[in-house]
Amino acid sequence: MKRLLEILLVSTRLGFTSFGGPIAHLGYFHDEYVRRRKWMDEKSYADLVALCQFLPGPASSQVGIGIGVMRAGVLGGVVSFIGFTLPSVLALIIFALVLHSFGITDAGWIHGLKIVAVVVVAHAILGMAKNLTPDVKRKTIALFAVVVTLLWQTAFTQVGVIIVAGLVGFLIYKHHTLDDHSDKSHFPISHRFAVICLTLFFGLLIALPLLREATNLNWIAMFDSFYRAGSLVFGGGHVVLPLLEREFVPTGWLSEEAFLAGYGAAQAVPGPLFTFAAYIGTVINGWQGGLLATIAIFLPAFLLILGTLPFWNTLRKNPKIKGALMGVNAAVVGILISALYHPIWTSSILSAVDFAFAAVLFSMLVFWKLPPWVIVVTGALGGFFLSFI
Fold first, then answer.
1. Where are the domains of the chain?
2. Strand, coil or helix: what is 201?
3. How far apart are CA 31 and CA 45, in angstroms?
4. Which value, in Å, is the radius of gyration of the alpha carbons in the chain?
5. 20 to 30 A Cα–Cα from 96, which one of 24, 34, 278, 369?
6. Is the dihedral of CA 75, 78, 81, 84 positive or negative?
7. Rounded to an integer, what is the distance from CA 255 to the centroid of its chain?
8. Sequence-ordered list of residues with C-beta below 8 angstroms from that of 220, at least 6 positions apart, any chain
9. Could you list the residue ranges that cross the membrane (predicted)?
10. pLDDT tens digit sequence for 65-87
């Protein structure tokens, strides 16, 4: 119980302060869970990130669930998810009920939070690169990942890069031995439970559209749309937004203006962008619709991560797979560098003043060792005042 409470407190704090999208969230997680609390080592964290890059759905939320599972079982995963997700769900439900017509997308404090995201991701990349790309071969794999993911910016490019990096790593490092004394990974999930989760995932994916056609009930139709979005989207929250727009705007569930207002609200709150579903659900059917939409869009992520973790743990301890994972981990560093440039850097550092402010925030985080929440507050206040310059 003590461990569950600890997970809830830490994940809730992250839920209130993790601005900047999925890649930034991975930076916050790395700083909190790997650097500060040492709940897992660099290699285990990179392996978990690599797995979640393979799976459809919200990668950062799946990483958070996985960390909770490793710490305290399935309940730990649930608690970690609730803590990280609830703040933005509540904020977006309130936006939908009261403030969704306010124009806030160009507010200065939001731009300040984007600069914070640059700093957090850069800090995470430095730490991961030092540990995961220590030799020239892995630096070359990371460079390959940077170049390819920058030139071909699609969700499937990331998956392809990880597959190629895994094959290259297998060929180069198949006889390499690793010292696993620092490996703290533990997935307290049985293979039987994992198979049940995977079966339920595919079963719902098939059954919900059939139920939708057979019943014509609005709540089943809504659940089906959100579940399908959470099941079939690779690449994180920004990729799911156009899919949700096609599901709900042309069909008349909500207007284009309401959708865009919610998009602005989603950019303004911390936590996973998939919680945009809470806004849409609330517009359609009140706060009950918001909760239903949240459950529907995140349920696939839960089923997939719980269904794959036990098998992933077995594979990554196989000597023949370790070389492949070394290549994959190097590619993850490259993918993060690519994401740091686009969309994080390109949408945040727009002037010399922005760069100077980012340098100050980076120094506060890296050299002065100030807590992340101080960086977030300073970034928001600084962005607000810079908007008057």
1. 1-175+190-344
2. helix
3. 11
4. 20
5. 24
6. negative
7. 28
8. 208, 211, 212
9. 7-28, 48-69, 81-102, 108-129, 141-173, 193-214, 264-284, 291-312, 324-342, 373-388
10. 999 999 999 999 999 999 999 99
CB neighbours of residue 312 within 10 Å: 20
Contact 237, 274 (CB under 8 A): yes
Mean pLDDT of the chain: 85
| Four-CA torsion 289, 78, 65, 292, nearest 10 degrees | -10
**Global pTM value:** 0.73
274: nearest Cα among 299, 304, 257: 299
The answer to whether 120 touches 14, Cβ cutoff 8 Å, is no
Q: 155-173 vs 136-151: helix axis angle to the nearest 10?
A: 160
CA distance 303 to 294: 14
Q: Which residue has the tokens 């640059």?
A: 118
Write out the DSSP string of 239-280: HHHHHHHHHHTTTTSS-HHHHHHHHHHHHHS-S-GGGHHHHH
Q: How deeply is 341 buried, as exposed, middle or buried, from its count of CB atoms within 10 A (0-12, 13-18, 19+)? A: middle
